[in-house]
């Protein structure tokens, strides 16, 4: 049995149960009688949730998504400056309720605590827009953040968080971004998430959350993913989780999703993801929205801000280390230095101006050494260095020199992509005569530009 709820939360739970029994509060099924746009405007309960920090500045945007305009709101502290990292926060509501206003207090609280650019959104709701509509909206807003950089945010330092259904979408968004080569995500904050569409947890039968039990869970799955309930971007507990960003998972004792969150934390750790799991045994589902009734809401928001800031700091340190390695390699001025850095690669590939491709570590080394005998003064001049995601660093540079015996100076504009492993070691170098495509960067095409054959 979980630790008893504190008095004020116990009183709220009792009052809500009384109201549900008498039909004064809508069940999830009855909630769908409310039009979609009205549900998007739902706000948190004022009796339970304090208003957010009024000093936080907000700016509303209409992001052009695949399914139409998406309402996004940008939150900034008055002293937030260009180059600040960003946090995308995804509200809950069982995939059928809520919008950007629902977690306004959380978004303001994160902006106030971190100085980050915080963004909330109103994604399309089920059943009018079943999976993958809501997830696509989250993807489109994430891409908009990375490409448009509202408030001058740093597109290489973006974290994502969410609560309940938003916790599910947080994990699904990270999976989709990982697999599609989307914007890099520095950290995940996953609050009491729905993760398992099989509903095998006994918590669905024993939880004291008012108005929500196994029947309501089954209904939620049916309306959100009527044809795709087992899809790994819906039932995220059963997805391949390796390679996800460092994660903080928050669970609570009085919650039909208690085991869903605990199992997710265990699965993330088993997949090698650095994971912090904090369990509030005396808290109910949704406690992040109960700041008037428990100090745990602010304590947990402090934790989210703290762990996200740590991830951003770690990301900055990692970028600095990787930049130093790349610059050392590209600026190697003699054969011995170049051979030394080249030995760190497990593979290398060069695309030559005449269309030939040299594919393989040893062949690339022989080609480069032969070139040094013809152009002994060849040198590189950096144009730009870009961190593409958590694995790849790209440089654009001029290769210049004076070949023997012609004595005519030349210059070639090239692009190089370096792959890194989890220990910040360069494992691969690929050089291109044109800016590489996303498929080339992610390794989804063979050297001659074809997609590799399936298994």
Based on the model shown, name its key terms.
13 helices, 14 strands, 6-stranded mixed β-sheet, 34% helix, Nuclear Transport Factor 2, Chain: A, single chain, alpha/beta, Rossmann fold, 8-stranded mixed β-sheet, 455 residues
CATH superfamily of the largest domain: Alpha/Beta hydrolase fold, catalytic domain
Shape: elongated
Largest sheet: 8 strands, mixed
* Helical proportion, percent range: 25-40%
Number of domains: 2
Total strands: the figure is 14
Strand content range: 15-25%
CATH topology of the largest domain: Rossmann fold
Describe this structure in words.
There is one protein chain. With 455 residues, the chain is of the alpha/beta class. The chain has 2 domains: 7-319, 3-Layer(aba) Sandwich (Rossmann fold); 331-441, Nuclear Transport Factor 2, Chain: A (Roll), CATH 3.10.450.50. Helices cover 34% and strands 22% of the residues. The chain is built from 13 helices and 14 strands. It has helices at 7-21, 28-31, 36-40, 104-114, 133-148, 165-180, 203-206, 214-224, 258-270, 296-330, 335-342, 361-374, 438-441; strands spanning 57-65, 68-76, 86-90, 117-122, 158-163, 188-191, 247-254, 275-284, 347-351, 357-359, 379-387, 392-401, 410-420, 426-432. Strands 1-2-4-3-5-6-7-8 form an 8-stranded mixed β-sheet, sandwiched between helices. A hairpin with a 4-residue loop joins strand 11 (379-387) and strand 12. Helix 4 crosses helix 10 and helix 5 crosses helix 6. The radius of gyration is 25 Å and the shape is elongated. The model is unreliable at 446-455 (pLDDT under 50).
